[in-house]
From TrEMBL, chain A:
Name recorded for this polypeptide: Guanine nucleotide-binding protein subunit gamma
Organism lineage string: Eukaryota, Metazoa, Chordata, Craniata, Vertebrata
GO molecular function: G-protein beta-subunit binding
Membrane topology summary: Lipid-anchor
Annotated family: Belongs to the G protein gamma family.
UniProtKB/TrEMBL annotation, chain B:
Gene symbol of the encoding locus: GNB5
Name used for this protein in its record: Guanine nucleotide binding protein (G protein), beta 5a
Species this protein is from: Sparus aurata (Gilthead sea bream)
WD repeat copies, ranges: 55-96, 145-186, 187-230, 231-272, 282-316, 317-347
Keyword Repeat assigned: yes
Top-level taxonomic group: Eukaryota
Length: 73, 397
């Protein structure tokens, strides 16, 4: 497998690469965007309760709570 | 069946329609999609994010960081060639390595927590096994794994300690075997430097996404080396890409000051996170655990937090004194860490009390009112006392 450097490629090489890529992509099966967005929304709403950055965490359970007092190791 | 593509914006012959206006008009048609679907979803209100820890110790710009799977340790790398492993709970430095090169632009923690990988201007990715013995010289055990023909921009271990994925300024990404240093697969398709990469969450299989200076984000199949999908809607270099937690979408942050969300099954951009007032580029993005929040580190020293569904900004965090170069949410989603050119790293989270102020409103109102009443009464008491004293003094005269 050859390792290349893009700086060595000519504009023509880059254009050929892009056209080949587009030819591959044209055959892709695509879903309806509305359906995909619905699924994203459902995924978020399912996980939102456990998401600490969204709901917040009481100070006593927070592993990053402010340090204070003395700790005996 | 694909949705019909949006009509191209009309070409204006006269007046000043800037590229940004045209792009905004075009993207407004296509990218309002997730906001439309989420119209009935309850908004989040305003968040208050608070810095919990500040990690000081780097002598120069912090360029990259990564969390360990134990949700507590962080590895960070900086411009002066130092790679430091921190305990984020205590802010102690556990290990420090000096790389032979400056600008260590990439670093990653191994899934086992027993090694770190880093690289930069040396065009290599090196793996350092971490030992429990603090006195042991880590540099002696270094293993050079990847060799590129230009700088290393990002690296990531795959699901095990045995393989590393790298991206480079030479426009390629590559998969390497750590033990032998052998190149297992190489990925060509970008027309310019590749700046970032992210592996799909393990449940969804062997793909990864990369973003580059050619404004493209490419999704690759790791086994065949083939580029499966390509997205080109950004107007400038893509500095950061991050998979959505479910693996069906990914977000990108770019020098064009926007973050965008792309859905892989729909094969298009579904949301754009931007504001007129934000003109500085995004250096790094990450999602919260559920995917509801998108965190972006910006070159104007701030961190903006976006509501993924509504497209609105829910919080802005100040604190860094120079551009934010890297941002990662911890593996369990309790906090997020940022690294900056101001030589520090910060660990921040959602300030429960201030963010939930609306629910705690009655208690707070009572507290505030009673404080006010006390203060005013004290003030009047003092005034009257003063007045009385002055009257007595005048009578004396």
């Amino acid at each position: 497998m050859p390792v290349i450097n893009v700086d060595d490629l000519t504009d023509k090489d880059k254009a050929v690469m892009e056209v080949n890529q587009l030819k591959t992509e044209v055959k892709l099966e695509r879903w309806l965007t509305s359906k995909c967005c619905e699924e994203l929304k459902e995924y978020i709403q399912a996980g939102e309760e456990e998401d600490i950055l969204v709901k917040g965490i009481p100070e006593d359970k927070n592993p990053f709570k402010e340090k204070g007092g003395c700790v005996i190791c | 069946m694909r949705d019909p593509p949006p009509p191209p914006p009309p070409l204006e012959t006269g007046g000043a329609s800037s590229p940004r206006d045209v792009m905004t008009a075009a993207s407004a048609v296509s990218s309002a999609l997730i906001h439309q679907v989420a119209e009935k979803v309850e908004g989040l209100g305003q968040f208050v994010m608070k810095t919990r820890r500040t990690l000081k110790g780097h002598g120069n710009k912090v360029l990259c960081m990564d969390w360990c799977k134990d949700k507590r340790r962080i590895v960070s790398s900086s411009q002066d060639g130092k790679v430091i492993v921190w305990d984020a709970f205590t802010t102690n430095k556990e290990h420090a390595v000096t790389m032979p090169c400056t600008w260590v632009m990439a670093c990653a923690y191994a899934p086992s927590g027993c090694a770190v990988a880093c690289g930069g201007l040396d065009n290599k990715c090196s793996v350092y096994p971490l030992s429990l013995d603090k006195n042991e010289n880590l540099a002696a055990k270094k293993k050079s794994v990847a060799m590129h023909t230009n700088y290393l921009s990002a690296c990531s271990f795959t699901n095990s300690d045995m393989q590393i994925l790298t991206s480079s300024g030479d426009g390629t990404c590559a998969l390497w075997d750590v033990e032998s240093g052998q190149l297992l697969q190489s990925f060509h398709g970008h027309a310019a430097d590749v700046l970032c990469l992210d592996l799909a969450p393990s449940e969804t299989g062997n793909t990864f996404v990369s973003g580059g200076c050619d404004k493209k984000a490419n999704v690759w199949d790791m086994r065949s080396g083939q580029c499966i999908q390509s997205f080109e809607t950004h107007e400038s270099d893509i500095n950061s890409v991050r998979y959505y937690p479910s693996g069906d979408a990914f977000a990108s942050g770019s020098d064009d000051a926007t973050c965008r969300l792309y859905d892989l099954r729909a094969d298009r951009e579904v949301a754009i996170y931007s504001k007129e007032s934000i003109i500085f580029g995004v250096s790094s993005v990450d999602f919260s655990l559920s995917g509801r929040l998108l965190f972006g580190g910006y070159n104007d020293y701030t961190i903006n937090v976006w509501d993924v569904l509504k497209g609105t900004r829910v919080s802005i965090l100040f604190g860094h004194e120079n551009r934010v170069s890297t941002l990662r949410v911890s593996p369990d989603g309790t906090a997020f860490s940022t690294g900056s050119w101001d030589h520090t790293l910060r660990v921040c989270d959602d300030c429960y009390f201030l963010s939930n102020l609306t629910t705690l409103q009655p208690r707070v109102t009572f507290l505030v009112t009673s404080c006010n009443v006390c203060c005013f009464s004290l003030f009047f008491f003092f005034l009257s006392d003063l007045g009385l004293r002055m009257r007595t003094q005048r009578m004396k005269w």
